[in-house]
Amino acid sequence: MIKTTRKSKREKEKEINFFEAFIKLQKHFFKDIKERLKRVKDPRHKSYIEYGSDVILFSVLMKNACGIYSMSNMIEQFNKDECIENIARVLGCELEELPHYDTINNFLCSLNPEEIEKIRDYMIRELFRKRSLESFRLLNKHWCIAVDATGLFSFSERHCEHCLKKEYKNKETGEIEKTVYYHKVLEAKMVVGDMVFSIATEFIENEDENVSKQDCEINAFKRLAAKLRKKYPRLPVGILGDSLYACEPVFEICSSNNWEYLIRFKEGRIKSVAREFNNIKGLEGKKTGDSTWINDIFYNQRVVILIET
Ligand SMILES: [Zn+2]
């Protein structure tokens, strides 16, 4: 095995012309993408539009494809005649300058996220249509989709009416010492070899400030699953999740959608299953290497398989 250090990775990346590589891929897989970038529902007032949505979104796509993390860094790196000409040539338009990052940020802030989702969906459908993802099916059947939530940002004061809220209390007095307002997103990521890409997204957020029960990851999963099912009704899905997902609502959604699931198990999450496994693993457990598994564990009228590694 060749160990890749970060430095050698960076050196190697320098040799790649990401722009050309992206254009090659785009021509082969996503012929229609330029049109789609142009057709997004532009939230801006027509009289203020200096750069088309295609120029802005394409610049951002290139930023990400080139592994540039900040907008200001992008402008610094892209604002060269050659680069501007390349982008203009690809999009078939006249360009003297690239949009300022404030212009890009303002546009992205006002754009409905669904407009970006439509472009992502188009790209994923093209990959399925061209059968480019066939070799990544588990047991030649299911595509693994990992679900997990991640924090987006947090604030010490309320930032909007949809914020989730967490109060930290003093253990002795019970007084609230600190309140944190935060936003989270639940992502469904398709696993393709050693890469993953986002296939569906659901924000975890409250409807308003006065909700009696806050939104949570499992509720967001219910919405995410409905979205995924609507977008790809016949996709053979295998859900991968951490131990939080080992619960009846998730099992129920998966069975009714004909999805398989592979979920990490923690003893505390479903005690009856843990008890049964521990009671019979010495007698009926099958072993291979360091792993022991039991095929038929009954839980809420369903049968689960538990593997201990
Ligand atoms: Zn907020």
List the helices and strands and how they pair.
Blueprint: H1 6-15, H2 18-29, H3 33-39, H4 53-65, H5 71-78, H6 81-91, H7 101-110, H8 113-129, E1 143-155, E2 164-169, E3 176-192, E4 195-204, H9 217-231, E5 237-241, H10 248-256, E6 260-263, H11 271-284, E7 286-288, E8 291-299, E9 302-308
Parallel strand pairs: 1-5, 5-6
Antiparallel strand pairs: 1-3, 2-3, 3-4, 7-8, 8-9
Helix pairs in contact: 3-4, 9-10
Short description:
The protein has 309 residues and is α+β, with helices and mostly antiparallel strands. The protein contains eleven helices and nine strands.
Keywords:
309 residues; alpha+beta; 11 helices; 9 strands; binds zinc ion
As residue ranges, the low-confidence spans are none
Radius of gyration: 24 Å
What share of the residues lie within helices?
40-55%
Counted beta strands: 9
Topology as H/E string?
HHHHHHHHEEEEHEHEHEEE
Mean of pLDDT = 90
> What's the number of helices?
11
**Largest sheet report:** 6 strands, mixed
DSSP strand (E) fraction?
Answer: 15-25%
Shape: globular
Overall tally of domains: 3
Structural class: alpha+beta
List cofactors, ions and other ligands: zinc ion
